[in-house]
Design goal:
single chain; 525 residues; alpha+beta; six-stranded mixed beta sheet; 22 strands
Length: 525
Amino acid sequence: MNRAQLTPSGWQPSRRTCLAGLTGWAGWAAAGGLGAAAWPLQGLAQSTQEREASGQQRQRVRINFSLEPNSLDPTTTSAAANAQVAHYNLLEGLTQIQEDGSVRPLLAKRWQVSSDQRHWLFTLREGVRFHDGQLLDADCVIDSFRRAGQPDSGNKARHSFFANIAHLHSPQPQTVALQLHHPDPHLLFRLGESSAVVLHPSTRAQAERQPIGTGPYRLHHWQRSSRITLRKNPDYWGDAPFIEWVDFSFLQSAAQQVQALQRQQVDVVFQFFTDSTNQFRHNPVYQVLHGSSTGKGLLAFNHRLSLLQDVRVRRAISHAIDRERFITEVLVSQGTAIGSHMSPQEPGYIHLANTYPFDPELARQLLRQAGLGQQAITLRLAVPPAPYAVQGAPLIVHDLAQVGITVVPEFLSWSQWLQGPFTGDFELTLINHVEPLDYAIYGDPGYYFGYDNPTLRQLLERHRQARSHRQQLQLLRQIQIFLAQEAVNAWIFNVHVGTVVNKGLQGVWVKYPIFAHNVAAMRWV
């Protein structure tokens, strides 16, 4: 096999270099939202007083976001909050994605690739140990990847990546040979996502609650509905982190987050741009980091409902939504209208927001064409606890009422959303899809919105088998146009992110190509 070896020691290539000529991009993956329960502010205050009394506050960083993880195993669940805690802190993969979207070695110290881009050979670092002392070897990687590719794995990259692995084997204990069905220009990037972290075969079953990884931190304590605390791993194989302790907290409302910031009870609040974010732009203690996003905010349809199987109804709903008003009022104008399942930050994106301009009269006309002009239409809207959803639901209710559709909002906790809509039990739901390059979900009839179209599946398969970058981009364009014309969902926004950060803390990302907080790269100054 003719291979060209890459020598990644100290290597910081652009994604263009890593991904075989694709244009570089830096996005963000977030599932923004509110946690199922809040961390009481009183407990926050007590924790702060204790740290100040002990003089150890600079040994700890306190990160707040809205969703509490339902698992710490990102290889079997798709909720982005899970990776937000575990990825790069507790669990690691073969590569690591940087803030600018570039990829560098992590558990793999180097790799080789064949000229046809289908055969890869990864050499693992020697002496890497899991938190319980067990050694990392090729069998751990192979077991993790085979597990991720199982039909019942729950891995969010099963279709987009792991199904493309034709063969895995280990020529030597520290090398992994990977053969693909089709070349994947995103392979090194995909290996740096949370879906590809490596677990040990003997402890992977406990990863949901007590993950044993190779990362720079270990799980110290998980107080349900309150906080998750990590502590520095004294035996970490890489450079030791600067920060000893990490507290992840989950405040349920923007008002609580603002109050915690005003009391200096948190160091980082990770959030979409809102009015509450803007008020800290000129704060003496905090700064606001303004970054881009690869999230796709949409009104998702359940295609199992006969009403929503009519493309005229789906198009009518798409025309009924005032996207610009949604972006202005809910996202404080910090977003972009989109019309298909890609964001402007992703390679191959084409602008399709004009496919369904705001046109209530056209929406009413389409409903009449579908035979629903005089018929009362009522749809339930499942609302997850994310700020964009809670604040955006009234606008959806208003807009659809103007065309004769009554929408009944049902406000859910995050766990209720995962157990209900995400299993297919819903009619409409307002949600932000956060994974980059995740258009392949529309080829899975079992996915939560139940879309089943053989023409699209053929397009996706042709895209997977495309041999050239030009062919891939042409087919990706066709996929986006097809989804838009079919009005598979009503896409609304691509949102920016505003992270409020203590000015004394360095290393917090501005842009998020994936949904992760690499605490080992943070330090107090």
